[in-house]
C-alpha cells in the first residue's frame, strides 16, 4: 500500500531515533567492559573485553548489599501494595456505599502529588517513631505511593469483568471474599502482572526516598549506592559504568522480556490518569 | 457512572441472605465495601495524606528541624517571590518544560506523521521497545551516562571535532551558559520515546477511512497531517503534555547526580531546593513552602492541560 521509498524513509527515521536512544546506553555498556588502563572520563570502546570492572565495582561498591536491599524493598512493596490494591480496587469497583467516589478520588491524589511534597513531614514523623534508617521507612511510603496507581488500575480491571460471571458465582453461593480471590483475581492475572512490574520498576528506581531516609550504608538501595559510588569514583569511568550496568540491569532484563506489558501498562495507566 | 449501581446487584442471593440478618439493607448499602478499602486508605492516609497536611502547616513556621519552631506566617512564601535564587529555580523548571515537553512532543508528532502509515511495518514493535527504553532505566544511571556524553573529552565534543567545530567545545554541564539546556536535552532524550509510543498507538486508533477520504480529496502528506492525524491525536497529546510537564517540574535525581544544581545555581530546580533546604541547610519551613508552591504549580498545570482534552474523552 505504501511506496517502497516511503517505507525506506520510515525505517530510516525509526533507525535514527532508535540509535539516539541507544547511544548513551551502549556507551555505558562499552565503557564498563573497557580495561581500566584505557579508561577515561567518557565513553570508551574497549580494545579487548575486560570483565573485571564488574567484580571490582561489585566488591568496592558493596553492590551485593545494595541489590539485596533494593530487592527486599521492591518485592515487599509489590506484594503489600498488590494485596491492598486488589482489596480496594474490588471495593471501588463492585460495592455500592456512600462516599465511594469521594474515597476513590482521594486515592487518586497520590497519582498527582510529587514525593517532594510529602517526604519532609514523613521524614520527621518516621524519625520521631524511630523508623528512619529502616527498610520500613522505604517500604511503607513507597506502598502508599504505588497504591494510587494500583487501586486505580485494579478498579478499572474489576469493573471491566462482566457482571454475569460474578452473578453465576453468587448463584453458586460464593461469598464476596471468594468471588474476589477465586474469580476476579485469577481472571486479572495479566493486569496484575503489569501492575507488579511497574511497581517493581518504580520502587527499584526510586531515589529521593532512600536518599532522605537512609544513612546506614548497609541499607542503601542500588540507585543510592550508585550515587555514592559515583562521587567516590569520578575518575574511573569504566568502574562507574560497570556499577551503572549492575544497577540498571534487573529492570532492563525484565523489560526486554516483558516490554509489551511495560509499555501498555504505562500508556493505559497514563491515558486514564 | 456510579449512580446506576443497585440494578446489577439486587438479584436474590439465597445463600448470602440466610447468612446475614440484614440482607435486605445490604443490597442497598454494601457496608462491607468499606472494609475492603480500609487497609489501602489507612496506608495512604498515614504515609501520604497526613504528611501532605503537615507540609502546609510546617510551611508557616521557621524551623531548622531540631530546635523549637517559630511562627512565620507567610514569610516563607514571600521569600520565594523575593529570593532571586528561588525565583531562578522556578524559572529553570519552565526552561525544562520546553525541553522535556514541547520539544519531544513536536519531534514525536513529526516522527509519528512520517510513520503514519507505518503502523503495519514489520519490526515496528522492536523499534518501539528500543525507543521507549530510556523510560525504564534508573535516572541515576541515565545521569551517569550523560555526564560522559557531556564531558570535556566526551562523545559530544568528539563529534563536534569531527565536523570541524572544535571552537564550540566545552564542558557542557560545567558551563554556566549550557548546563541548563544540556540537562534539558537529557529530558528530551528521556521523554521522546514516551511521546512517540503514545502517538503511534493513537494513530493506530484513527479510523483508516479518514485517511482514505483525505486521499480521495487529494490531500497531500501535510494536509493529511493537519486534517486527520493531529485532530485524531488530541487525547494523546494531552496525556503526553501532562506526563512530560510533571516530569520536568519534578526533576530531582537527574540534577542531583549530574550537576548538583551547579555550576553556581545554573541548574538548581525547585525539587532540588526542597531537598537541599530541608536536609542540608536546615531551612525546613522554607523547604516546605517551596514544596507547597511546586505541588500547586503541578496541580494547576495538570488541571489546565486536561481542560484542553476533547469532550468525548472524559469518561
Structure in words:
The complex is a heterodimer of chains A (273) and B (315). By secondary structure, chain A is mostly helical. Chain A is built from twelve helices and no strands. Chain A has helices at 4-32, 52-60, 63-94, 100-112, 115-128, 136-160, 163-171, 176-187, 189-205, 208-213, 222-232, 237-272. In chain A, helix 2 packs across helix 12 (237-272). The radius of gyration of chain B is 26 Å and the shape is globular. Chain B has helices spanning 6-9, 14-19, 23-26, 32-58, 75-82, 84-114, 124-132, 139-150, 155-162, 179-205, 208-216, 221-232, 234-250, 253-258, 270-279, 284-307, and strands at residues 61-62, 70-71. Chain B starts with 5 loop residues before the first helix and ends in an 8-residue tail after the last helix. With 315 residues, chain B is an all-alpha fold. Chain B is 68% helix and 1% strand.
Short description:
The complex is a heterodimer of chains A (273) and B (315). Chain A is mainly alpha-helical and 273 residues long.
Amino acid at each position: 500500500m505504501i511506496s517502497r521509498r516511503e517505507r525506506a524513509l520510515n525505517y530510516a527515521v525509526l533507525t535514527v531515533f532508535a540509535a539516539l536512544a541507544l547511544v548513551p546506553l551502549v556507551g555505558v555498556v562499552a565503557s564498563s567492559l573497557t580495561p581500566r588502563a584505557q579508561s577515561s572520563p567518557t565513553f570508551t570502546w574497549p580494545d579487548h573485553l575486560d570483565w573485571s570492572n564488574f567484580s571490582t565495582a561489585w566488591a568496592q561498591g558493596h553492590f551485593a548489599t545494595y541489590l539485596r536491599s533494593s530487592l527486599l524493598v521492591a518485592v515487599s512493596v509489590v506484594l503489600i501494595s498488590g494485596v491492598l490494591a486488589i482489596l480496594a480496587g474490588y471495593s471501588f469497583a463492585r460495592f455500592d456505599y456512600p462516599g465511594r467516589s469521594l474515597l476513590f478520588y482521594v486515592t487518586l491524589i497520590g497519582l498527582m502529588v510529587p514525593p517532594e511534597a510529602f517526604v519532609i513531614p514523613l521524614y520527621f514523623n518516621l524519625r520521631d517513631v524511630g523508623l528512619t534508617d529502616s527498610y520500613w521507612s522505604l517500604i511503607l511510603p513507597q506502598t502508599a505511593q504505588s497504591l494510587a496507581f494500583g487501586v486505580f488500575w485494579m478498579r478499572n480491571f474489576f469493573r471491566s469483568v462482566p457482571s454475569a460471571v460474578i452473578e453465576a458465582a453468587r448463584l453458586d453461593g460464593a461469598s464476596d471474599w471468594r468471588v474476589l480471590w477465586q474469580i476476579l483475581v485469577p481472571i486479572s492475572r495479566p493486569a496484575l502482572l503489569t501492575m507488579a512490574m511497574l511497581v517493581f520498576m518504580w520502587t527499584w528506581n526510586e531515589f529521593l526516598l532512600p536518599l532522605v531516609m537512609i544513612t546506614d550504608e548497609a541499607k542503601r538501595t542500588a540507585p543510592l549506592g550508585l550515587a555514592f559510588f559515583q562521587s567516590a569514583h569520578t575518575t574511573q569511568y569504566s568502574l562507574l559504568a560497570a556499577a551503572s550496568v549492575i544497577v540498571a540491569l534487573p529492570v532492563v532484563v525484565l523489560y526486554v522480556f516483558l516490554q509489551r506489558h511495560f509499555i501498555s501498562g504505562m500508556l493505559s495507566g497514563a491515558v486514564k490518569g | 457512572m456510579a449512580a446506576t449501581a443497585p440494578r446489577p446487584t439486587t438479584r436474590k442471593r439465597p445463600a448470602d441472605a440466610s447468612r446475614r440478618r440484614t440482607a435486605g439493607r445490604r443490597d442497598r448499602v454494601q457496608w462491607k465495601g468499606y472494609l475492603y478499602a480500609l487497609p489501602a486508605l489507612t496506608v495512604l492516609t498515614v504515609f501520604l495524606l497526613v504528611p501532605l497536611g503537615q507540609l502546609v502547616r510546617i510551611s508557616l513556621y521557621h524551623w531548622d528541624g531540631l530546635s523549637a519552631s517559630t511562627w512565620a506566617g507567610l514569610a516563607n512564601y514571600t521569600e520565594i517571590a523575593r529570593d532571586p535564587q528561588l525565583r531562578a529555580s522556578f524559572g529553570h523548571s519552565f526552561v525544562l518544560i520546553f525541553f522535556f515537553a514541547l520539544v519531544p512532543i513536536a519531534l514525536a508528532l513529526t516522527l509519528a506523521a512520517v510513520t503514519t502509515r507505518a503502523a503495519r511495518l514489520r519490526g515496528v514493535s522492536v523499534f518501539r521497545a528500543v525507543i521507549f527504553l530510556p523510560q525504564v532505566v534508573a535516572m541515576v544511571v541515565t545521569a551517569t551516562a550523560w555526564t560522559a556524553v557531556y564531558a570535556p573529552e566526551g562523545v559530544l565534543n568528539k563529534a563536534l571535532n569531527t565536523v570541524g567545530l572544535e571552537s564550540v567545545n566545552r564542558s557542557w554541564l560545567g558551563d554556566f551558559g549550557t548546563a541548563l539546556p544540556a540537562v534539558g536535552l537529557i529530558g528530551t532524550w528521556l521523554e521522546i520515546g514516551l511521546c512517540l509510543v503514545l502517538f503511534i498507538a493513537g494513530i493506530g486508533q484513527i479510523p483508516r477511512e479518514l485517511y482514505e477520504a483525505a486521499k480521495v480529496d487529494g490531500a497531500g502528506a501535510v494536509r493529511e497531517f493537519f486534517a486527520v492525524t493531529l485532530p485524531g491525536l488530541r487525547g494523546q497529546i494531552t496525556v503526553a503534555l501532562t506526563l512530560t510537564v510533571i516530569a520536568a517540574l519534578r526533576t530531582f535525581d537527574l540534577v542531583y547526580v549530574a550537576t548538583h544544581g551547579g555550576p553556581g545555581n545554573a541548574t538548581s530546580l525547585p525539587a532540588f531546593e526542597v531537598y537541599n533546604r530541608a536536609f542540608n541547610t536546615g531551612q525546613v519551613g522554607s523547604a516546605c513552602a517551596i514544596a507547597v508552591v511546586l505541588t500547586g504549580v503541578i496541580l494547576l498545570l495538570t488541571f489546565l492541560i486536561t481542560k484542553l482534552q476533547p469532550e468525548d474523552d472524559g469518561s
